[in-house]
Amino acid sequence: MNFPRISVNKQKILVISPICDQIHKLEKIKEFGDQYVVIFTGEVCYPWDDLEQVQKRIEAMDSYLKEFSSFYVLGDSDLTFKNLNKNNVNDLNKWIDNQCLGVHITFGNSTMLTVVHGGIPAGAKGWNDILSNIEVAFVRNINDKPWHNFYQGNYGYIISAHPMTDEVTHYGLSSSIDVKNQVLAQEYDENGLKRTILL
Question: Among 3.20.20.70, 3.30.43.10, 2.60.40.1120, 3.60.21.10, what is the CATH number of 5-198?
Fold first, then answer.
């Protein structure tokens, strides 16, 4: 698991909310072609009750990742699935190990965007606090309030999945894009947030 830090100039970013078992949404995402760097916010392993279906979803996601400029950010369900599946040494767990805990992007104008599935753990201030910290996939709340309420901008603007809500929620320095029963795409560029697209 890694946490890549990349630089882009004017490239647009498209952050996809958790895809879960709606892997067919990849076809809609493919229609965007190469106009975006696409970042998925995890959960392709959920639900995990049918191992064959999990494998098919991972294969479809892996195919997309190889074809397009994209990243897969691990979600809490992906990591939980890996733990439940730990006695089975197989390609599924290897695939999970090769994915990201988050992605940090710096644009040509110095605007920064960080994408994680969960959020920023309490007390995290510098890069070393998050780069290999799997809590970024699990954080939802701090002291019973969305973690976003405590975020002070140390990692640029953040787009995450947690906490799940009934609609996309924008906070001062971050957004939560996991909406019940929907797969959404959030555009972001050097000037900040753009369209939210229902896939």
Answer: 3.60.21.10
Element (H, E) at 114: strand 112-116
Residue 165 phi/psi, 5-degree rounding, is: -135, -175
Strands 192-198 and 70-72: unpaired
Q: What does the pLDDT look like over 25-42, one tens digit per residue?
A: 999 999 998 999 999 999
DSSP H or E run through 13: strand 12-16
Q: Based on the number of CB atoms within 10 Å of its own CB, is 185 exposed (0-12), middle (13-18) or buried (19 or more)?
A: buried
Give the model confidence (pLDDT) of 106-119 as tens digits: 999 999 999 999 99
Model confidence pTM above 0.90: yes
Distance CA 10, CA 37 (A): 11
